[in-house]
């Protein structure tokens, strides 16, 4: 547990940041009035997500490896961090779906049928629901975390002289 203390800390920070992002989206009307823009603007979450991942890897380098980290060590750390975030993500999705913005799914279902993205409400409901979002969120967190780590570690690793 001591070996992954930094990863656990940053996974919690990442999850809190994700919840704050959802509050921001809701306050900006992206889950209601401006739901048509949600599909595009929600992708801006990648910016703070990448920043948090890089900060976590730098923290691991500085405070666990005493400023010297190999690409492999950083990659392992990032994979562990991504797994923890993926494991927490169904909880954060539940909080988002049922506490922060319970109106999101009804709104996006209604709007996606109105604009013809789905032909029926049932088709839209099959896509826009907690279970689908929890699964997609966990898989997405894992994949994007590993990809971000793989790229970031090119720059963060200790270079040989």
Automatic annotation (TrEMBL):
UniProt cross-references to Pfam families, sorted A to Z: DUF4199 (PF13858)
Q: Which UniProt keywords apply?
A: Membrane, Transmembrane, Transmembrane helix
Coiled coil (UniProt feature): none
- Nucleotide-binding recorded as keyword: no
Transmembrane region positions?
Answer: 7-24, 39-57, 78-100, 133-156
Keyword Protein transport assigned: no
Q: What is this protein called?
A: DUF4199 domain-containing protein
Per the record, the domain of life is: Bacteria
* InterPro entries associated with the record: DUF4199
């Amino acid at each position: 547990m001591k070996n992954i203390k930094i990863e656990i800390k940053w996974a919690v920070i990442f999850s809190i940041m994700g919840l704050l992002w959802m509050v921001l989206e809701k306050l900006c009307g992206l889950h209601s009035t401006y739901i048509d823009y949600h599909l595009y603007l929600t992708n801006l979450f990648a910016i703070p997500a990448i920043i948090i991942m890089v900060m976590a890897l730098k923290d691991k380098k500085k405070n666990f490896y005493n400023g010297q980290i190999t690409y492999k060590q950083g990659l392992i750390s990032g994979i562990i961090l991504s797994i923890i975030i993926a494991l927490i993500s169904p909880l954060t999705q539940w909080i988002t779906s049922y506490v922060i913005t319970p109106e999101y799914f009804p709104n996006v279902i209604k709007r996606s049928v109105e604009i013809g993205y789905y032909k029926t409400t049932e088709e839209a409901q099959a896509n826009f629901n907690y279970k689908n979002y929890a699964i997609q969120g966990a898989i997405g967190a894992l994949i994007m975390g590993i990809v971000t780590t793989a790229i970031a570690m090119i720059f963060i690793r200790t270079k040989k002289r």
